[in-house]
Design brief:
The complex is a heterodimer of chains A (164) and B (504). Chain A has helices spanning 9-35, 49-70, 88-124, 130-151. Chain A is mainly α and 164 residues long. Chain A folds into 2 domains: 9-70; 88-152, no CATH class. Chain B is an all-alpha fold. Chain B contains 24 helices and 2 strands. Chain B has helices at residues 2-15, 18-36, 42-49, 58-82, 92-103, 107-140, 145-162, 167-182, 199-202, 207-226, 245-267, 274-287, 304-319, 321-327, 333-344, 351-356, 358-379, 383-389, 394-413, 416-434, 440-462, 469-472, 474-486, 489-495; strands at residues 184-185, 192-193. Chain B has a two-stranded antiparallel ribbon with strand order 1-2. Chain B starts with a helix and ends in a 9-residue tail after the last helix. Classes of the chains: A mainly alpha (164), B mainly alpha (504). The interface between A and B is large, with 77 and 66 residues.
Chain lengths: 164, 504
Amino acid sequence: MSDVSNVSNAGKAWQYGIAIFILGLGIVYGIGAAAFPSEGGYAGIGPNFVPILIAVALGVTGAILLWQVATGGLRNFTDELAGVTANYRGGLWLTTGVLLHALLITHIGFVLASTLLFVCVARGFGSKRWWLDAIYGTALVLPVFWLFTMVLDVSLPQLFNDWI
Amino acid sequence: MMDTLGFLLHGFEVALQPVNLMWAFIGCLLGTAIGVLPGIGPALTVAMLLPVTAKVEPTSALIMFCGVYYGAMFGGSTTSILMNTPGESASMMTTLEGNRMAKNGRAGPALATAAIGSFVAGTIATVLLTLFAPLVADFGLKFGPAEFFSLMVLAFVTVSAVLGASMLRGMTSLAVGLAIGLVGMDNISGVARYTLGVPEFVDGIEFVLVAVGLFAVSESLYTVLYQSGEGDSSVNRMGSTWMSAEDWKRSWPAWLRGTAIGFPFGSVPAGGAEIPTFLSYTTERKLTRHPKDFSTEGGPGAIEGVAGPEAANNATATGAMVPLLTLGIPTSATAAILIAAFQNYNLQPGPMLFLDNAPLVWGLIASLYIGNVMLLILNLPLVGVWARLLSVPKPQLYAGILVFATIGVFSMRQSWFDLLLMYVIGVAGVIMRRFDFPVAPVIIGMILGPMSEKQLRNALAIAQGDWLVFFKQPIAATIMGLTFLVLFVPIFLRRRGVRLSEDD
């Protein structure tokens, strides 16, 4: 347990966040487990036993993580991204694509929603020509749609009919 | 012995049916493609393909999934050798010598020794699987809940403690996976746990959703956030794949040693192909008569340093089929997802599978022989075609990955809620990767958690609540003892200066 990690302040805040989240999850799971029945018949343990065990595991790992972060940071961890500026704009495009796809798929059908997703993600990764991506996207999505709905019998939302 | 041969011949009858040959070929083709493409691995691909289980017959689908798993192991070497990025983590060691050889104009022989080595190792390992699987399955019939529970504890400890840089972070990931696995109806008492009143949660959190979120979404998001600008995209020239007599002479002992190291590591729950490929590489470096050729000595790249690890990673993948088929224990994330595929058909891998579904099991094993031949043909003469895949630009590559990912998730329940949850899990995956929390324990915890709880409660019910049952029965006690020893492996490895990252 020697090499204490070198992280930026932002990285440190995230580490605290993770440790507190795990600890909190343990507490929430513990509270949940208290409400489950303990009656277990011959086994002697009921549906609450394993949840209690896992709540304890989460609580203990969370607490140790918190202790590590408070005393210098996660151990055996080198922050390879310490000086890297994240491309949040790209991340935002990707997020927009996934969320729009989730919200629109039942309204505008699989083909249009997925093409939209394709264009947004490609945009996030720096593609400049959205119309070309729309063509690539459609060229990928249409055959996939037919393959899944007609050959594999997986039902996907349509816009008009079986073909789109 | 004769029985085994008879079963295997029946297996070939199943595997050689045109429809199964077609699925094996599709699997090998897809597997090679995703092995070549950096960023996506076999675990993700099988997870995304799980919806086909709705229509395709179980034997065919499982043959295809195994083709994907194997194909990725074959294809991974292409990327490692031609670019300086491993296509998947099991090819990390190949990159060291393979890329150096390619830089010195010997990409062809490096690719050839990788492909032929993968074929040799895959085939020998499949023979071993054929011989050992029935024996292990027979032995497995003696297992009761106590033994199975002990085995699962061993699997938990190995995947979370041995893998990764930190045992604490591995254990944390495992606890999170187990916690996710608890959501839903308890399969013994019927009590609903941690459903927060959300009806979608009563059936539990869909495994595909977590796998796709953690692999596809988080990989894309991580890449766009932190790696979208960079990337050494220079691809080495290929040249002829002809191996000289000297290349053969140096390769074949390395293939055999790689197989001997890889197979046993695959067949015990030791988590992934990282350790065996590393061991094979160090063994070759120690035994070589040409130490000056190794890249670590500034040499032009040593062919045995490619041959050994490539053979080892294929043998590991085949070895992993032993505990998966005979005991229902997954030793890697991909194997865990294969269990989910079985479960989609209401099949439970384990000793009973060999009795109840012999045609399926043996068809699958026979298809591994066929798949190896297909992969050799796909990879050796056609390697130039695959290399062209490396020129797919990142924006369209990741856009395509996400389109496929959403099909896998959405088609399960037609629910947009699942798509949102997939995104949230993807974000969590980015944070985990950013701070070096391994992902495989989450997947394995989620799949094995509910199974192990059932075995624990059954074992205790049989023993009338006596906890010592896990230490009184010889098999269970031995496994528990092993589990305890495994906890010291990371300390031992760290002392020797080995740092591991996980297998995807």
